[in-house]
Amino acid sequence: MGKWSRRAFISGGIISGGAVLFGIAIRPGNRVAKVAPLISDTNDTIFNVWLKISPNNKITVVVPHAEMGQGAHTTLAMMLADELDADWNLVEVLEAPAHKEYANYALAKGYALGDLNFPSWLVDTIDGFFLTATQAINLQITGGSTAVRTTGKFAMRVAGASTKAVLLEAAASTWNVPTDELTTKNSIIQHTESSRSAPYSEFAAIAAQLKQPVKPNLKMPDEFQIMGTNVQRLDIPSKVDGSAKFGIDARPPSLKFAAIKTAPVFGTKLKSVDEVSIQNMPGVRKVIQLDNAVAVIADGYWQAENALAALKFVFEDDGNELVEQSDIFKQFENDMNNAIKNSAEITDFQKGDINAALESANHIVEAEYRVPYLSHAPMEPMNCTAWVHDDICEIWTGSQDPLGFAAQIADALEIDVGNVLLHNEFLGGAFGRRAFSDYAIQAAKIATEVPYPIQLIWSREEDMRHDYYRQASISRFEAALDNSGIPIAWINQYVEKHDPVEAPYIPYAIDNQHIHFTESKTHVPWGFWRSVDHSLHAFFTESFIDELAFAATKDPYAYRRDLLADSPRFLHALDTAAKKSNWDSPLPDNWGRGIAIHKSFGTIVAQVIEVEVLEGRVVPRRAICAVDAGFAMHPNGMEAQMESGIVYGLTAALYSEITIQHGAVAQSNFHDYPMLRINESPIIETYIINGGEQIGGGGEPGTPAVAPALVNAIFNATGKRIRQLPIRLHDLSTKELSSKDVA
Amino acid sequence: MLTLTINEDRYDLDIDPQTPLLWVIREQVGLTGTKFGCGIAQCGACTVHLDGKPIRSCTTPVFAAVGRTVTTIEGIKNESGELHPVQQAWIEEQVPQCGYCQSGQIMSAIALLQKNPLPDDTDIDNAMRGNICRCGTYPRIRKGIQRAAKMIAIAPQKKKTIDG
After folding, report:
1. Which of A74, A86, A170, A572 could pair with A206 in a Cys bridge, judged by C-beta atoms 3.0 to 4.6 Å apart?
2. A21-76 tens-digit pLDDT
3. Does domain A550-742 match CATH 3.90.1150.10?
4. Measured between CB atoms, which of A68, A460, A669 is closest to B98?
C-alpha cells in the first residue's frame, strides 16, 4: 500500500486551512486541489480525487476504504483500472487520507434506500443529497459491504472512464486525428492508421486540463478486461513476509507503551487510584486516570501490563453491577409480553389479514429462539498510537471509519479536526469492531499528558470485555399452515432492532405476514457485527421455515422451493446449492444435511451444510455455498469472503457466547470464548452465480445462512431442534426421532 | 545484559530476563512481523522458531532463548532474498485476508514441513490447530501447505538433474 504525504498535512495546512467548501457531486470535478498535496508526489498528474498518473506511466488509485482482509483495495483498483484500460501491472493503491472528499456517502445511501433500485435519472440527485449528508456527519466508513457495490460503481468506474475520455481527447488533439480512430489498451493509446502509439503519461498534462465527462460510458460486462478476473491481491505479498504494517506496528521515535484497564461494568467511572503502589516498578513512566479507565505508561508493554496488574484502583458502582445474563433475558421476555399487552409493538412489516388467516388455518406452529451477545474478537487487539506534537495530534491505527475517528478525537481533545492527522494502517481484522473509536480516543487522551508518542495496546481480555456487542435477542414465531402444509400466515415478534431494516424479512410467498419488534434497552453497548441484524434473523427465520417443512412433512429444500417459485434469483441459488450437495444422496450414520438461504447487502447466499454428530460432538464436514452477488468483480476474492463468512458463522453458531455476570462480561480470552480451528473447519465449496442484477456485497453475506443451515443439519442428523445458540450448550449425545424417518 | 541470536543477527540487550520473547522481538529488536494476539499461548499469532521448533513467544521468557537460535518471519527468505516456498505458496493460493495471524501460520507451516515433508490434511490439521485465523483462511492454509510441500519436493530433484 502506498503512503500519502504526511509532510503536506503538517506544512501545507490543507485540512486545517479553514473552511473547505464542497459541492454536491462526487463525480470527477474541481475539488482535486484540496486533496492534491496529500496524495501527490512531484511530477504526478492528478486527474480527480481517485487517481493520478506518474511520468513512468504508473497509475495510482486512491481508494477510500480500509483494507481489513476483504480485498477492497485490490477490487476497487480493478474497477477503475478496467474502465481506464490500464496496464494492471502498473497500478498501485493508495488508501485515501482521512479527508471529507472521500466520505462514504454510499453507505448511508445503501442503508437508507435498501437495495439501491432507483431510476437512473435520480442518481445524481440522490448522490448529491447523500454526499452532503454524510460529509456532514463524517462518514468514510468501510462497512455494510459497500466498497464494491457503491464506491466501486459510483466513484471508481466513473473516475476511470472519465479519465480515459480526456486522455483520448488529448491524444486526438495532439495527433490531430479523430477520437474515434483511437484505441486504448494497457495504458497505451494507439492510432492504427498512422502507426502511432504512446503511453497515457504522455498526454496526462494536457488531459488533466480538460473537463472530464460526468456521465461517461461505462463498459458492459462482455467488455470487461480486469473486472471479473482473478488478479492477485495487491496487499498479499506484504502479508507473507512480515512487512505489512498494522496499527500495532507503528514505531514513531521514542515510542512508549501503555496498558489500560477500563471499568468492567459498562458505564461506570474510575473512583480512585493509589499511584504509590507501583511507583518503583521498572520502566514505569506515568499513571493516567481517565473518566472510566486507568492506564500505565512504561518503556515496554510488558512492564506496563505488569504495573497495571499491581496497581491498586477502585471503580464506582452505579447499580449495573447487579445485572446478570438471566436478568437480561427475563427483561426481554417481560418487555415482549408487556408490549403485546399494551399494544406497544412496533411494526416492521405487514401484509394481508393475519387474523383471518389464523382462523382458517388447519395447523398452527409456534417456536421461540434465542441468541447470545457476541464479541468480534479480531486477531489484532484494539490498539492506537498517538503523539501530540507541534499543535497536532498524530494518530496511527486501524479504523473502518478514519474520518469519523479524526472528528471524534478532535471532539474529545477539544481541538480542530484539522489538527488531527490520522494514518490508517492495515486492519488486523475488524468485522465491524473498528468502526468504534473508543480505543483511539483513549490513546489520544493519554498522549496529551506526555511529550512522547505512546502506543496503547488492549490486552485480549480488555478487547473481549470492552467490545460493542452483537445484541442478544429472543424471537418468537407463529405460523398457520393450510391443509396442504403451505404457510398462509407468518407472525414474528423479536427484541431489539438495528440495521439493516430488511434483515427479518423473508423471501417466501406467504400472503399474510406481521413482523414486529419490541425495544428493550440494556447497559451492554451494541455494535455492527459481521452482517449486523442479518446474523440473527437468518438463524431465526431459516430455522423456523425448516420447522414448518417438518410440520408439513415435506423435504426442507422442496418446501422452500415451492415458496420461492416466483423468485427466480433465489430459486437459482437454492437449486445450485442443493444440486452441488447431491441433496438426495444418502449420508452415513450420524450425519445430517441442512439447507438455508438468505439475502443480505444485495447478495443471495444459499448454503448446504453436512454435519457429523459424534458422541454429542458436532463436526461440520462440508459446506456448499451458492452466491449470487449480481456480478463477482473478483471471483477468487468472493470465494475467499464466502469461506471467511462461513468460518466466522460456524464459530459463532457452535461456540460463541458473551454472558453478563455482575454487570460485566464473563469471558476473557480464547480459552473461554473459543474460535473454530483448522481441524474443525469443513471442506468449503463455493459456486458463484453471476445473476446480472445490481451488484451486492461480499464481506458479510456469507455469514447469515450458516447458523440455520448448521442447526437444520443437526436436526436432520439427530432429530433435535436447536432453538438457542450457541450449539455447544446442548446435549446431543442422544438421538430423537430423526427427521429422516419422517420426511 | 543478555545476548540473543535472531535471524542470524546478534543482539546484546539490557532487559529483564523474564520479559516475554515476543515483546523483546517487537520492541527492543524492532521486528514487527511477529504479532501479539492473546498473551496466553492460545492463538499462535506470536509463533517463532527456537532452534527450528515452533514456540509461542508471548509466553516464552527471553532468557529461555539465550544461547539458542531464534527465527522470525523476517528471517525465512533464503540467502539470495527469495521467498520461502511456504511464502510463495501463500501468494499462489492467495491465503491471507487481514493477514495479522499469517506470520504465525507460516512459521507453524514451515516447522511442520521440516518435520513431515509430505503431510496429508489430517497431519496439517494437527500441526496447525494451535494457530487461530479469525478470517477463516483454513481451507487455503491446507492448500498452501500442500503446494509448498510439492515445491520443496521438486526443488532438490531439479538440483539433482543439474548435478547429474
Report:
1. A170
2. 222 222 333 445 555 666 666 677 877 677 889 999 999 988 877 888 888 889 98
3. no
4. A68
